[in-house]
Amino acid sequence: MIGIDVGGANLKVVDDGGAHIHYCPLWAEAPLADLLSAYAGRGENAAVVMSGELADSFACKAEGIRFIVDAVREQFPDALFYGTDGRFHDGPVPELAAANWLASADWLRERHPSAVLLDVGSTTADIIPLGQFDDLLGLTDLLRLQKGYLVYTGMLRTNVATILRAAEINGIFTPVSTEYFACSADANLVLGQIDAADYTSATPDGGAVTMEAALRRLARVVCSDLEEIGEEAARGIAIQFCAAQQGMILRAVGECMQRSGAQEVVCAGIGATLFTEILGSVNLNRDLGGMADALPACAVREVARRTASS
């Protein structure tokens, strides 16, 4: 059995060899079935979760679900798909939309029953009270946004201007441009919170993944060249952005803990190390041998195994 998580930007696969993450932007007609072919033909079945059905290449979620199911079944004809009802399905049903977070909760709820799971990925932050699994069943992303269980910002793909509306530049309060000039990956790279190998998404300008290139993109956020404001000011934009982004996520975690009565936080995703340091919490990457970067894929695999043996 292998676990597969089909997101809008990344395909994540967990097998006996570990976690494998492929940049796979569905809005750009990425070759999902071709990427999966490398894992087919080994006599294994697949347990699958998804969130990529929301990609704007699809007219609606139902179309996205059908596309993903068909692409997976091209390589794994007997694949099982986990839904927001906490059940496995063998075809495209509405419950498959954005169920990847629930698979994580389903697997971890007995291991960490008094915890809030914080899974900070490239694009979003999932905040899940693991001790309230029955109340999580049936939640759509719309409902999770409304409840504070989904904060739509992540370590790589967030447009800096969606969070930072103004920055202090050389002591002057400066509104930012709302163009897509720089992303959270640029800010995190500049501050050493990710390295170049972690920067797996496309850069906003199609340019290089280097410190200088990231600083230049950050300078454009205030309609400037890097030489115009200097490296210190560009780095300051990164600091101000990350402080605002982390504040959003931490407020949501605190509110979730207060409402749920949770006693601890466990962290997963590409942001696990950063937020573990901030919160003094449990880093699931250490517990899972690095596979928490692909937690839903790991989780759906284990939930499928548990279901098959029960």
Automatic annotation (TrEMBL):
<dbReference type="GO" id="GO:0016787">
    <property type="term" value="F:hydrolase activity"/>
</dbReference>
<feature type="domain" description="Hydantoinase A/oxoprolinase">
    <location>
        <begin position="47"/>
        <end position="284"/>
    </location>
</feature>
<dbReference type="Pfam" id="PF01968">
    <property type="entry name" value="Hydantoinase_A"/>
</dbReference>
<protein>
    <submittedName>
        <fullName>H4MPT-linked C1 transfer pathway protein</fullName>
    </submittedName>
</protein>
<dbReference type="InterPro" id="IPR002821">
    <property type="entry name" value="Hydantoinase_A"/>
</dbReference>
<dbReference type="InterPro" id="IPR002756">
    <property type="entry name" value="MfnF"/>
</dbReference>
